[in-house]
Amino acid sequence: MTPLPTVIIVHPKERRSKCTVLRLRGDPRFEFYRSPRRPADLTRYVRLGLGGPLLTGDDAESGLLVLDGTWRWVEGMARPVAEVPVRSLPPLSTAYPRNSKTFRDPGQGLATIEAVYAALRLLGRDVSGLLEGYPWSAEFLAANEAILGSAVALDGALSPGAG
Fold first, then answer.
1. Cβ atoms within 10 A of the Cβ of 147, count?
2. Within 13 Å of residue 127, how many CA atoms lie on the same side as its CB?
3. What are the residues facing 31 on neighbouring strands?
4. Are strands 63-68 and 45-48 parallel, antiparallel or unpaired?
5. Residue 110 phi, psi dihedral angles, 5° rounding
6. What superkingdom does the record give (predicted)?
7. In what order do the strands lie in the sheet with 45-48?
8. Rounded mean pLDDT for each run of 10 residues along the chain, 163 residues in total
9. Which listed residue, of 38, 97, 112, 113, carries a Cα 20 to 30 Å from 137's Cα?
């Protein structure tokens, strides 16, 4: 069965120069929407976020919904999709250089491309080319090798070190 596309909802004020998933536009594995727009049917989706149960193999048949914007905008972006169950990632470290002088990012906060990559990898989905062009990909993978390197999907399609 072909997985549902990953839906990425981008905040209208997200700067293109800071958008880590911009180059995924046009990839058939992804659908993009500008907030507050969204797909009409998200009944088979889970939303990546903080504070929910961990993403597990039980979610393998679900589509992923990802909100792309700064952390201060996420709460407002989440309201129109509040019915979508939240799933969290295991503790991962970001390689994205943060430099906000006005807002403190959550300790487990990742760049959007890092979160998408980690979630899809943990679910055993195709991650080929996702980190291509991401300047901090090597640092992200090295910092999270213990978790991502041991990720094995239920069907065994993802082996240690794959991706």
1. 16
2. 25
3. 7
4. parallel
5. -120, 160
6. Bacteria
7. 30-34, 6-10, 63-68, 45-48, 86-87
8. 89 74 91 91 94 92 91 82 94 78 59 94 91 91 84 35 36
9. 38
